[in-house]
Amino acid sequence: MNAFDLTGRLAVVTGARRGIGRAMARALAAAGADVIGVSANLEKTGSDVEQDVLAAGRTFEPIRTDLADPDAVRALGADLAGRERPVDILVNNAGTIRRAPAAEHPDTDWDLVLQVNLSAQFALARAVGAAMVARGQGKIIFTASLLSFQGGITVPGYTAAKHGVAGLTKALANEWAGHGVNVNAIAPGYIATDNTRALQGDPVRSRAILERIPAGRWGRAEDLAGATVFLASDAAAYVHGTVLPVDGGWLGR
Q: Hey, which of 3, 31, 33, 37 has its CA 20 to 30 A from 50?
């Protein structure tokens, strides 16, 4: 048996339109899963992530939902939890970031980041997770961050939210592990995506970051593929409440 085989399973990936979410969806499809992609601006047809999934021979369904809208998030959760075909894997990946010094950080930025990166994550996990608990099986994977462990600079809302994601991962695992539901998180390191473009474009910060990464390079979205498939698969059946860094060695430095 191949413990990493996801054939016949249905995965939901939020923030699937680009970057890490797209790479996660592509990896799950390559392992055999059908995919529902969720993003605020996801095309109704022909998106890059849809093409990735179809090329792997799996089905793809796009859902356009703005995770900044609590009512829309609750409606999405109810939709996913109530479907005839159950969700086997929920990848809570969508996120946003706002940068400003803490003394000048606007309430609007704080509220937006906490809603998208933490409150929406809980609302979806609560809805889909309840259905998984009732069935006695399921996998939930959050996207945490290095800032689930560290403080960061000029991103207080993002850091608070990602610390919250790490805590939520453990809290849900404590409640649901005995019901056959695995709840874990992946903490990406410095990955070359749109969210880190400001850092990549700052020669001083980019150099300082690279000097600390033992692997000697920025991560690529594809570097998250293996960890995603592992945590979504039977190979991780006894893994609960873990925040798994994929960071080129950053936290070990």
A: 3
At residue 29, φ and ψ (nearest 5 deg) are -65, -40
Task: Determine which one of 110, 158, 190, 218 is catalytic.
Answer: 158
pLDDT tens-digit readout, 40-73 = 999 999 999 999 999 999 999 999 999 999 999 9
Expressed as residue numbers, the domain containing 184 is: 10-247
The CATH number assigned to the domain holding 121 equals: 3.40.50.720
Does 67 map to a domain? yes
Tens-place pLDDT, residues 1-40: 599 999 999 999 999 999 999 999 999 999 999 999 999 9
**202, pLDDT greater than 90:** no
Is 52 a domain residue?
Answer: yes
Q: Is residue 54 a part of any domain in this protein?
A: yes
Indicate whether 107 belongs to any domain. Answer: yes
| Cα–Cα distance, 89 to 10 (Å, whole number) | 6
Look up 190 and say whether it is catalytic: no
Count of domains forming the chain: 1
Q: How far apart are CA 45 and CA 74, in angstroms?
A: 24
At a CB cut-off of 8 Å and minimum separation 6, what does 67 contact? 14, 40, 73, 94, 115, 116, 120
Report pTM. Answer: 0.96
H or E segment and range at residue 184: strand 181-188
